[in-house]
Amino acid sequence: MLDLLRGGDSARLFVSSLVGRAPATALSLVLVLRTKELTGSFAAAGLASGSNALANAVCSPVLGRWLDRRGQPPILLVGAVVSALAMAAFAALPHGVSLAAILPCAVVAGAAMPPLGACLRTLWPLLLESPERLHAAFALDAAAIEVVYIAGPVLIAGALGAWSLSASAVACAVLLVLGTVVFATSPSSRGWRPGVREESGGALRAPGVRTLAVVFVLIGLAFGAIEVAVPAAADHAGSQGAASLLLGGWGLGSLVGGLFATRSAAPRDPVGRLCVYLTLLTCGHLLLALPSGLLVLGALLFLSGAVIAPSFGLAYGLVEGAAAAGTVTEAYTWLSTGLAGGIAAGAALAGVLAEGAGPSGGFLLAAFGAACAALTVGAARAALVPTPR
Q1: Per the UniProt record, which residue ranges are transmembrane (predicted)?
Q2: Separation CA 297–CA 253 (nearest Å)
């Protein structure tokens, strides 16, 4: 792993992208807590958080297309400043303010959020020439983001928010600008030039990108179902507070799996390996539906989570070969959008199932999503195999 970060400005890009992505992991919770504090309404808090997520999902591919056309620094820096100003405005709102003043801040903060993860993955192939190092880099990124998703909400929304939720919003703005400035002013980001587009149109015109976007929607469906089914299972067992620990164990499994993947050789058949991982994810989610105690559930969540980061690493590694020239960054953003949409749908459906069938319904939905993702990869194998350029 250290070898990956020694060449050129790899370490600078990797660390700064994690710093810049941390606010995105905490902002949803900050919006919920701060809006509740300002308005006294959880309904308003949910609308603010949901509007932020929806704006980010819709606008991220647009930013990705601009990045592919104009280069990284100008789009990243402008996006970071606009998003940070919206967060700062949200932090400055007084108590008793109406939802009409909160929603524009939430929407602009999400819409302008720079897609640093997509930009980093676009640069990896230029910095790491060998397939083994590139495979390890994608796995490391997928594993490290698990740490950010755990630490970001805890430190920014939890620890700092205990003192001041307004300060949490300001911290999100500062970290976003800091991480983006360090990333965008790096030699690799400044020197990157978008590829020449082969024809007009966006990234989704490539069959491989469409396939991966569908796969990420289905994976998101599984993840959204898990995020509802686990709290339902904890509540059913009479230990509602255990939900965070169980989900933390799920993320820890992904982290451990990703770290192991960084030390494995690049597969000769990444599409086939991805099918295997998604099949294992399906089996793991099926086992979650079996009646068990919370300790067994936690162990099964850890095991099923162990293939998440390796799966993401393999999927990200397929993007450059699947995307048309000049659309790679936009292609990565479509995967994030698909994942977000799938998570929203999975959470909504699992909530309905939890009311009727209990937690097992959500776990079965998760298995269904993972199985469909595996079948999609297998059926569209030809579209995902890189073609020489």
Answers
A1: 12-33, 39-63, 75-93, 99-124, 136-156, 162-186, 207-230, 242-262, 274-290, 296-319, 331-354, 360-384
A2: 13
Chain-centre distance for alpha carbon 310: 14
Contact 62, 50 (CB under 8 A): no
Whose CA is closest to 142, among 310, 320, 364, 2?
Answer: 310
Q: Can you tell me which residue has the tokens 């067994």?
A: 296
Average pLDDT rounded to a whole number, residues 174-199: 87
φ/ψ bin of 348: left (φ > 0), alpha (ψ from -120 to 50), beta (otherwise): alpha
User: Going by C-beta distance under 8 Å and a sequence separation of 6 or more, which residues neighbour residue 352?
Assistant: none
Q: How far apart, in whole angstroms, are the C-alpha atoms of residue 232 and residue 299? A: 17
- Give the CA distances from residue 177 to residues 48, 79, 183, in Å, rounded to whole numbers and listed in that order: 22, 9, 10
Query: pLDDT of 305-333, one tens digit each?
Result: 899 999 999 999 899 888 888 889 999 99
**What does the alpha-carbon distance between residue 80 and residue 180 come to, in Å, rounded to a whole number?**
7
Q: What is the mean pLDDT of residues 143-160?
A: 78
Instruction: Return the sign of the alpha-carbon dihedral for residues 194, 199, 204, 205.
Output: negative
The CA–CA distances, whole Å, from 289 to 20, 116, 286, 296, 302 equal 37, 36, 5, 11, 15
Q: In whole angstroms, what is the distance from residue 317 CA to residue 246 CA?
A: 29
Q: Which of 188-202, 319-333, 336-350 has the lowest mean pLDDT?
A: 188-202
291 DSSP 8-state letter: -
The DSSP letter of residue 336 is: H
Phi-psi region of 130 (alpha: psi -120 to 50; beta: other; left: phi over 0): beta
Burial bucket for residue 356 (CB in 10 Å: 0-12, 13-18, 19+): exposed
Q: What is the pLDDT of residue 104?
A: 95
Q: Exposure pattern of 76-103 as b/e (b: 16+ CB <10 Å)? A: bbbbbbebbbbbbbbbebeeeeebeebb
Quick one: what percent of the chain has pLDDT higher than 90? 43
The residue with tokens 């003192």 is 163
What is the value of pTM for the model shown?
0.85
Most confident of 45-54, 100-109, 287-296: 100-109
Domains (ranges, CATH) in the chain?
3-191 (1.20.1250.20), 203-384 (1.20.1250.20)
